[in-house]
Amino acid sequence: MTKLPDQHYITQIIGGNTNAFSVLVERYKDLIFSLALKMVKNREEAEEVAQDTFIKVFNSLEKFKGDSKFSTWIYKVAYNTCLDRMKKNKKDEGNINIDNFSEHLVKTMENALSKMMDEERKKSIQDCLNLLPSDEGFLLTLFYFEDQSLEEIAKIMDITANNAKVKLFRSRKKLASILKEKLEPEIINYYERGR
Fold this sequence. Notes:
This protein is an all-alpha fold.
């Protein structure tokens, strides 16, 4: 059975078949929740943001013109819903010093991560992503786990592609510093146990 494109269901929903919306919810619910969790950093709030996102998407589906992919549009709705929620809560974000990190060190950490088992690597990265400021964790998730291009990320976050590139670079440096801090003790312990 082939997977029908999003536009097929969008047309049905706009035409009055509201039951077709459940297919889109099923298709995007896990991702929207994950992205919301990266930003609001609270499970209950992430669930509420995901629900709010789908309500907004349903209510404004006829506004979707198809200028971008549906996934890009729904991620943008989720991102803006997260920003609204965060403005309400006014939570402080931790700042991480990235001045001492060179591009070489970022590459070194990426190479070390690529050698770890895939699931372990994903878990380590996810844990460290949760320590980043919300929008940076969101951006890195879109880029690395959802394979969104810089242009798509720029549309979602309502910034220029150049700005997205700069934010991606800075976010990668911060992630590298967190990974170094979190993974180095594990690696040292691993080698000490092996002796």
